[in-house]
Design brief:
Blueprint (H helix, E strand, L loop, with lengths): L2 H12 L11 E7 L4 E5 L12 H11 L5 E8 L9 H10 L4 E5 L5 E5 H4 L7
Parallel strand pairs: 3-4
Antiparallel strand pairs: 1-2, 1-3, 4-5
Bound molecules: tetrahydrodeoxyuridine.
The site of tetrahydrodeoxyuridine has 13 residues, from α2.
Length: 126
């Protein structure tokens, strides 16, 4: 699976975003070590704190299906340009796969990627 194919899966997932409050739509596609891909979108709530980010939707789908070893995650949004995962999502990704690669779409349209370490050095663990 190429980075552009994973970004395309994230684009498709973004179509299901439920974002009536922010109007900011996000899609994510998570590639597992066994080749499976789990997608997610942001799901907002009238009680704003109950909102779930696209990345965590994808992670929770994967973990609940028995997959915890993630190779890469692609993230796109309706905002244009790079959409970096929020701190909570970085922490959740790090719980399972601190060597995951994070793929974003640049404002020029091409894929750019970061190591987890670049975006979340010294994350919390027990
Ligand atoms: N959001 C995500 O889905 N992922 C992130 O990493 C950051 C923010 C969503 C949450 C909310 O629905 C909207 O973007 C605006 O914050």
């Amino acid at each position: 699976m190429t980075d552009n194919e994973l970004l395309a899966a994230a684009d498709k997932a973004m179509e299901n975003a439920y974002a009536p409050y922010s109007g900011f739509r996000v899609g994510a596609a998570l590639l597992c070590a066994d080749g499976r891909v789990f997608t997610g979108c942001n799901i907002e709530n009238a009680s704003y704190g109950a909102t779930n980010c696209a990345e965590r939707t994808a992670v929770f789908k994967a973990v609940s299906e028995g997959c915890r070893d993630f190779t890469a995650i692609a993230i796109v949004s309706s905002g244009g340009g790079e959409t970096y995962p929020c701190g909570i999502c970085r922490q959740v990704l790090g719980e399972f796969s601190p060597s995951i690669r994070i793929i974003l779409r640049s404002s020029g349209g091409e894929a750019v990627s970061y190591t987890f370490q670049e975006l979340m050095p010294k994350f919390f663990s027990l």
